[in-house]
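ping. complex inputs:
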Amino acid sequence: MAISIAHLGPPGTYTEAAAIACLDWLKQETGQDAILCPYPSIGQTLEAVASKEAQMAVVPMENSIEGSVTMTLDNLWQLDTLRIQRALVMPIFHALLSRAEDWEAIRVVYSHPQALAQCQKWLDNFLPKAQPIALNSTTEALQYLDGDPTIAAISSQQAAQLHHLPILACPINDYPDNCTRFLLLSLTPSPGGAYTSLAFSVGANQPGALVTPLQIFAKRSINLSRIESRPTKRSLGEYLFFIDLEADARGASMQSALVELADHTETLKIFGSYDVLSI
Amino acid sequence: MAISIAHLGPPGTYTEAAAIACLDWLKQETGQDAILCPYPSIGQTLEAVASKEAQMAVVPMENSIEGSVTMTLDNLWQLDTLRIQRALVMPIFHALLSRAEDWEAIRVVYSHPQALAQCQKWLDNFLPKAQPIALNSTTEALQYLDGDPTIAAISSQQAAQLHHLPILACPINDYPDNCTRFLLLSLTPSPGGAYTSLAFSVGANQPGALVTPLQIFAKRSINLSRIESRPTKRSLGEYLFFIDLEADARGASMQSALVELADHTETLKIFGSYDVLSI
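pong. complex structure:
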């Protein structure tokens, strides 16, 4: 039976492209077929797996320009049961799609807030009069483009093909080195790999409360490749810390580090160890 | 002559309320009058001060539920010359504004992305069929509400009064303890105070690259009240770190810490020492 992979839809989003790459990889590695199930938000995508409506989920985690996708981090912490199977790094080339014959006619540009932010300078330079409006995905507005030449959308070249829409400019991202890291998640234990992701809260807000957990890894020469703080949502000034480490949680050194870490944190959640696939 | 305070507009935004509090505080402390100058984005608000078009700026820095306002962090790092004069913590009570007579009729809810995110569960529960659409501010859509009873906006009670719009529900934020911290910035040196904000990049991505800078403060018992990472925008996996410390940069212990920190960071930017005002 085919595996179901939940992802942020509708069809044509960058997350769908990442989900297709996962589907190809699964077929190659395990021989298993998979089908894609688009969901309207990142929260609903992850909940589909937590509630066993879908077996796997692909969500964006971090972009090289705009940083963390906070919706993914907050849901990972809350849902608790999802484990990372693989990370995928995908280059992002944004395109301006519109039926406008004259750029001057464009009054509104729709896209996902991250895509709008990644093309902010380009929009200021080339479409200073157009109003950016954020939607849930890069493809949500595409259905309206045919009927209205005063609107445009920032989306992928694949989405333009899929919807038979003209590309007015591409790439329009402000920084050429624009990549997004996606995660493939499921309820099964992680396979292990070169990276480990975890998150924790620290009890007391006192000098060194964050240094101590970080020292646990530094003294074992385990490299911290990323740290991100998120509010606990209890009170201003209380944080959760999301950490990526360049080591497998099953290694002896990591095992002892994780035991020590549990003693110095209030709540500790380990999302798994996995390898990174570049697309 | 009156001082000009740039802030995110149009009138009725939470940032305007924070700017009004700053204006009152300035009058009380210094006897100086100030006028408010609304700008369409956080970037343009901060640039107005950097280019001396306005003398001060009020921008949101961090919300207790949704976390950092990344636009503010990225602009502070880039503009480089702005110094923090004061922080303000303001409770946030979101209201649903609409001319709809029946909630079932509401098809679209407009607001700033942070406000939409802070009311996400409420929207899922009470307006599951309405589409959330993000705009540049909480007040941008209010002008359209009179003409269209199928749309609603999430904004403040003050904005409802200002625009003579009915409040359908308030508060609608998912977490009752919802506060935002704002910064008052200008080009003059910081006045000093209980908190210091700074940011740095670290040269090498190696074990302990972040621990060393944090240890500099921990070993002097200087509490780190916040750490936030932002991408350098050079390549995926390279970060800047924004740090808030509970100490005045002019103190002897902080002075020696900052000298040591400069030796262990690639670029170090100190945004100033200041006190926090609760509204």
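The CA atoms of residues 149 and 170 of chain A lie 18 Å apart.
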